[in-house]
């Protein structure tokens, strides 16, 4: 794995990211806008499932998932560019590895929710609640994405190679 990271080190794309103050800054803006879209959509839906604003039909709030997916694409693209800029530093950082694991768990959680509960959303009346197990998926989602944000914000403070 370290060989792969070293082979990415010094690529033209990575060099461009490090050499251009504006490109790196632009990718930070893209990353934060993507993160805002991602978390806004997820938080709106998860909080509704957990009982906030019960008069809003769940099927309508579920449409925010598209917003979250767009945000995820933006954060993934900019995140890959950050990684390519310094792959050894990121790839050997335990916080970065924890962040990637948390993103994977959040994705698995979201796929599990969609598979188990999304059909029921279309048939629920306003104010109706999903079963406790569905609410646990959403509580887990909020916790996982909060942990992703925290680990991501700590990365610059703990960016030395471990």
Description:
By secondary structure, the chain is mainly α. The protein has one domain. The protein contains 8 helices and no strands. It has helices at residues 2-8, 12-19, 21-49, 58-61, 65-85, 87-91, 94-121, 132-154. The protein is elongated, with a radius of gyration of 18 Å. The protein starts with a helix and ends in an 8-residue tail after the last helix. The model has no long low-confidence stretch (mean pLDDT 90).
Helix content: over 70%
Q: Give the number of helices.
A: 8
What is the beta-strand fraction? under 5%
Mean pLDDT: 90
Order of helices and strands: HHHHHHHH
Structure classification = mainly alpha
What is the molecular shape? Answer: elongated
Calculate the terminal CA-CA distance, rounded to whole Å.
15 Å
Which stretches are poorly predicted, pLDDT < 50 over at least 5 residues?
none
Rg? 18 Å
The major beta sheet can be summarized as: none
Give the total of beta strands. 0
Whole-number count of domains = 1
Produce a short descriptive summary.
The chain is mainly alpha-helical. The protein is built from 8 helices and no strands.
Secondary-structure map:
Blueprint: H1 2-8, H2 12-19, H3 21-49, H4 58-61, H5 65-85, H6 87-91, H7 94-121, H8 132-154
Helix pairs in contact: 2-5, 3-5, 3-8, 7-8
């Amino acid at each position: 794995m370290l060989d792969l990271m070293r082979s990415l080190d010094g690529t033209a794309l990575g060099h461009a990211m490090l050499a251009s103050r504006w490109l790196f800054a632009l990718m930070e803006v893209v990353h934060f806008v993507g993160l805002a879209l991602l978390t806004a959509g997820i938080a709106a839906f998860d909080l509704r499932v957990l009982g906030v604003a019960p008069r809003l039909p769940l099927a309508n709030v579920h449409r925010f998932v598209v917003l979250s997916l767009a945000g995820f694409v933006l954060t993934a693209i900019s995140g890959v560019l950050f990684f390519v800029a310094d792959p050894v530093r990121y790839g050997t950082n335990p916080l970065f590895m924890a962040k990637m694991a948390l993103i994977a768990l959040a994705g698995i959680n979201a796929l599990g929710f969609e598979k188990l509960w999304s059909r029921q959303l279309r048939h629920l009346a306003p104010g109706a609640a999903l079963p406790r197990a569905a609410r646990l998926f959403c509580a887990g989602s909020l916790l996982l994405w909060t942990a992703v944000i925290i680990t991501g914000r700590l990365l610059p403070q703990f960016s030395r190679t471990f």
